[in-house]
Design a protein that fits this description.
about 190 residues, 4-stranded mixed β-sheet, 4 strands
């Protein structure tokens, strides 16, 4: 495959993945609401940049924060500190991502001179997947599904400073919450 063909493939919108993510987030949140779970924070964890796959949802409720940490923005907004993870709520989205990863692998010929670093094409593929996840979350936020003005939503990659985290924090939250998040995690 030529670079032009690979770029054309990467430039295509992925409406199938977008719709799957939105549908499965809706279903997951409906289950939470059916159990009277009132969360203030909701996150999607796509795995590591090198291996975006099986989506995981995380959520946290006010009651999940220890009393001694209730005023701490770190414990409020660090998904790594949250109490609730749902590992099996995104089977369709994860299958589509696996399919996209397999398609990419067929189309991309990696220069093996440094197999431990992502090349520009691999970064572009990962960013496309992350952008699709963010687009789905933005659309659901506009529909009011991810909570109100005081709720927090993010795409979270543990032990990372990937730009999708601050991008999603900005796109999915009020200015006040975004400012607090940035002060805690990006300063």
């Amino acid at each position: 495959m030529t670079n032009t063909e690979l770029q054309t493939w990467l430039d295509r919108d992925d409406f199938e993945l977008l719709d799957a993510i939105k549908s499965e987030i809706r279903t997951h949140i409906a289950k939470l609401h059916a159990h009277s779970t009132q969360f203030y924070g909701y996150a999607l964890l796509p795995g590591e940049l090198e291996a975006i796959c099986d989506l995981v949802a995380a959520f946290n409720c006010e009651s999940d924060i220890a009393p001694e940490h209730i005023a701490s923005s770190y414990y409020r907004y660090s998904v790594d500190e949250w109490a609730n993870y749902a590992h099996s709520e995104f089977p369709r989205s994860s299958a589509i991502i696996d399919s996209r990863n397999a398609q990419f692998k067929k189309l991309h010929r990696k220069d093996n001179s440094n197999e431990y670093l992502l090349d520009d094409w691999e970064v572009a593929h990962a960013n496309k997947l992350l952008t699709t996840i963010l687009t789905a979350m933005i659309e659901l936020r506009h529909d009011g599904l991810l909570g109100g003005e005081k709720s927090f939503a993010i795409i979270w990659i543990s032990d990372s400073d990937h730009s999708i985290m601050s991008q999603s924090a900005k796109a999915l939250n009020s200015d006040a919450i975004y400012k607090t998040y940035i002060q805690e995690f990006c300063d």
